[in-house]
Input
Amino acid sequence: MFLELIKTFVREKWVETIDADDLILVNKSYVLQDFSEKEADIVYRLKTRDKNVIFYVLLELQSTVDYLIPFRLLLYMVEIWREIFNNTPQYERESKHFRLPPIIPAVLYNGAGSWTAALSFKEMLDRYQDFCGHLLDFRYLLFDVNRYSEEELIRAANLIAGVFLLDQKMRPEELVGRMIYNLELTLAEMQQQALLKGKMEGKIEGKIEGKLEGKLEGKLEAQQEIARNLLLLNIDIDTIIKATGLSPEEINVLRKQLEN
Output
């Protein structure tokens, strides 16, 4: 789900280079020294495929707007860097080649109102405009559940998009129905494109048959994927049957696959 979140909503080059096999959840609590009741929610250690660059993503979960979030994120980042520095042998950290890993801060917000906190750290500094070029600054990623349109989330058609839609108060059966409808529109569009591209009647007929067979298989796979996602969300089987058209036996097979 974390990878889906990043790859669905972050349009940056580094996302394409993530090595999914080298994703590690950092099992450590980073408690702020000055905010004893606050601690970092999720920290992931990742590596790129091409250059093997190690970096971290710090993900904060917020149900209310916290106007101190840029400052809090900075303190978390410093705590992570401090631990890495202390765990690095002295001869390595004193070398001119020593580098701290990049940390990408992010906030996942599912509150009812708009997110109105500053999006960059410098905005918390008084009259920062007067000192441009000399101030520490960073801009965190913001995943605002209510900012994404239903059309955009349905088009994504993955688990994290489904969670966002359910968080926007959409009923599970309505969500699945819209996903299937969107899939059928896509298949119809593919069929129309196949017809337009055909030049000879015989070739067109053969292509249509092949496309229809592929589309039926693709629709079944899509229904199965939607059913898997709903099972992960603990939706009852009757609702999944109505939404996907799959039989109870097919759904039980999918459930056993997920359990394994």
User: Anything to note?
Assistant: The beta strands are 24-25, 42-47, 54-62, 103-109, 141-144. The mean pLDDT is 79.
